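Researcher: Please translate sequence to structure tokens.
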Amino acid sequence: MPSQDLQLIKQRYNIVGNCEALNHVLDVALQVAPTNVSVLIVGESGVGKEVVPRIIHDNSPRRRERYFAINCGSIPEGTIDSELFGHVKGSYTGAINDSPGYFGVADKGTLFLDEVGELPMATQARLLRVLETGEYIPVGGTEVRRCDVRVVAATNVNMRKAISEGRFREDLYYRLNTITVQMPPLRERGEDIVLLFRLFAMQMAEKYRMERITLTDEAKQMLMKYKWPGNVRQLKNFTEQLSILSRERNVTPATLALFLPQDRESTQLATIPQHGAGDHSFENEREMLYKILFELRGNVNDLRREMSQLKKQLENHSVAPATLSVAAGHDAVSPVLIQPQSAAKTDDYITDIEDVVELSREPETPAAAVSAPPENLNLNVMGRVMLEKALERNGGNRKKAAEELGISDRTLYRRLKQFGIE
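Model: Translation complete:
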């Protein structure tokens, strides 16, 4: 791109800097603007990713249509589908009118999805369909709607790592990633740091009618050596703080050191880690275990309530023992029994966490209750019956039986060995 055109773009969008990486970003943005391809902007938080989609929209054939910038991370998971794709009246509590959503309102225009890596998995599936077919269904609706919207997305998340951890759809990533724009972090922009500092200092002086602060040559070098984990946003806040609190208007390294953060680890916060094949993080596993234990606690409480209700019904209605037995190959017919699906789910929780919580004890039956055979209400017996029925329905295929029961192959093999089933 000619330098004259580049300077016009910088003046129009108030972009400060002359580093090669920044100029390349602006050049790519102008090249893709006349097309209709999806663009993914990648960069750390605070580098100024939001200016690129604006440049793309303003220099595209859609420039006379609407432009919306949406922060996907700020919308609650329960309402994000309604915000993006709209809803029909009465689809949920508070939906008093039909809403077209952002995709409906931005038809023929451009949508900038910031922090797209924070989208829930269900919303990612809807977004993929819109990108591929231009069709979507509003929340609570049945009518398929069409739209012509160009999507520009941005993220500060390591997408490869998110895909490997199951937090982002790989097919959606490749659909968004037709063109990738890599925004450079501030620490790699060299003298642009000093230029930005000068701009922010001038803005503060004009705003509060104070003398503008300047930097000595040594202070400029110190400023450029700092890592700036918060990038341009951090530099602006730092300049404002220095403008107000510094008694010296010509700042020296000694004064600068009083305001720069000294925590060395803070300089690593903004980097996007590139993990090798052997690296592994147990953070997600720990969160999953907490979630499973929490759900298990709720299921145990539900099971206790069901057993208590069953005992009361046995006492009140004198249910015959035969109605409680579960014959091999036949489901129980009593309307008050625990359903097989619930039993299978409970057994799945017990087998997965059986080293943490022991629930294999039989419930105590009051003396006044009907003298039903104790094994009929034993969870292990019910689990054995479910395993046998699942294997029978799948022709002895253990993998398919495990999928039907909703448990892992390892859990299935352990239960087969426990029950002595060949």
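Researcher: Any highlights?
Model: The chain is about 45% helix and 10% strand.
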